[in-house]
């Protein structure tokens, strides 16, 4: 199928034409404002790195399994029917001999590795970018929940008014000016993360759009091919893994994009979970102003319309099934 190869070309073009914008993204990631300020922040970042490393390992295992199963299918076909075993692609030499067949199989199978690694390597990169944004939102949410923490009202919360000689209640932001500094830092950090998410979506907009189309079409073709195979054959198992890998490409985008949206929606809730009533009315107004922005979800989108969420992934699967149903009905007629 040529569709994955065309898709890979568009991914390569994006990588080479968007280098300056990616460089700005990398500079932001290294910016101290997105760094770990506490041990909890560091734990979130380390946990994210571990998850991404594990995901990349699974992707490598999947590509290697596909390579060996496809190679095994050619070997078994040759052993079962020595005379009729053929190479599906054109090769400029005779494949009847064992040597010719082996060379032909190598030429047919070897591109699977670099094409598979290139595809999933790219997809894991985009997923890692989104996962980094999700981690930053988790850190922001945690900081908001605890920014107004205090030990409760005690005698230190009261001061003597020099004019009236009466005790006056003091809010925690009046006693600790560092709270306002921390809040401004959180607002600025959120602004940077919002720019980061929107920039990642803009950079990979075309490549993700083509990937969604590619997943729909190739998944349909793979399922159509599997419908005519034996369930206990090596080729069926190979095609099943291919189907999983095709679906995984779009699933990575949609899953981690969905996490970004989910975490951004919980930022406003984090304010209510905090002890925000312990700050002065003036500070509360500033918090409410910030919440009007935090209440809008950071939803990654492609083509400025389609959200990169699990809802979109379900739509892709539905489209693949509809295309498959059309092809089967056409075959029957």
Principal-axes geometry comes out as elongated
The proportion of strand residues reads under 5%
Helix content: over 70%
DSSP summary: helix tally: 12
Instruction: Note poorly predicted spans.
Output: none
Oligomer type: single chain
Number of domains: 1
Number of strands: 4
Rg of Cα set: 28 Å
SSE-based structural type:
mainly alpha
Q: If strands are numbered along the chain, what order do they take across the biggest sheet?
A: 1-2
Determine the mean pLDDT.
85
Put the structure in a nutshell:
The chain is mainly alpha-helical and 333 residues long. The protein has helices spanning 3-17, 19-29, 39-80, 98-109, 111-146, 172-175, 178-203, 205-226, 234-265, 267-273, 281-294, 310-332; strands spanning 158-161, 166-169, 301-302, 306-307. It has one domain (3-32, 119-332).
Explain what you see:
73% of the residues lie in helices and 4% in strands. By secondary structure, it is mostly helical. It has one domain. A hairpin with a 4-residue loop joins strand 1 (158-161) and strand 2. Helix 5 (111-146) packs parallel to helix 9 (234-265). The radius of gyration is 28 Å and the shape is elongated. The two termini are 25 Å apart. 27% of the residues are buried. The mean pLDDT is 85. Keywords: Cell membrane, Membrane, Olfaction, Receptor, Sensory transduction, Transducer, Transmembrane, Transmembrane helix.
